[in-house]
Fold this protein.
Amino acid sequence: MSRTLMVAGNWKLHKTVDESVALAQALLKGLQRKDLDVLIAPTFPAIHAVAQAVKGSPILVAGQNLYWQDQGAFTAEVSGPMLKAAGASHVIIGHSERRQFFGETEKTVNHRVNAALKAGLTPIVCVGETLEEREANQTADVLQSQLAGGLAGLDAKQAAKLIIAYEPVWAIGTGKTASEDQADQAHAEIRAWLGGRFDKNIENSVRILYGGSVKSANAAGLLNREHVDGALVGGASLTAEDFLGIIEAA
Ligand code: PEP
């Protein structure tokens, strides 16, 4: 089954509203490829302005997180319906920085996945092992438990709407990239798990992005591998030149 490639940029805690719109406009200007999905995830304050700037173009917009209640006394949180109304179609969930610095657990990932689906947002669910876990040969176990917890209770119809991002924690922002073999093997394990937990269609159709120090120089090799359906890019998504370079190389 052919899966459309996606190149996604996670802007993390970078850029003011004006800077975000300028970057989105520069991407629009330089974007040549029409055969893959391009997605950008600005900070919350910039989502609406960026979504307006790319409206009617092939560039998709994502939130970097969401809360699982639609509204209420939950100071500083942002909900799925709010993201959707601001122009987002996707939302990143369970990024390792959320797990590491903000107490994200499999249970909270699961709440967020359900809330995203309920709001009509496509969840991009991040999983990945630490260096210690990889060195202790625990990668497959860690991925399985993150998937089992994060996707608990979902049915196949819901699972068909997911995107998974495999992001080894040791490769994020470190300049160390997983080798093409390491990435493809982890993606194959995730794919097999999806097949066992849901069905063959989910196994073959759900896209699995790789994240961890992707640059234009290593993108082609990684994205050419059978089970790698795109990239989730942090640092190299912050300039149009770098991000377009990855898109062109994909
Ligand atoms: C990320 O934060 O999702 C990421 C992969 O970052 P970087 O590309 O900078 O390693």
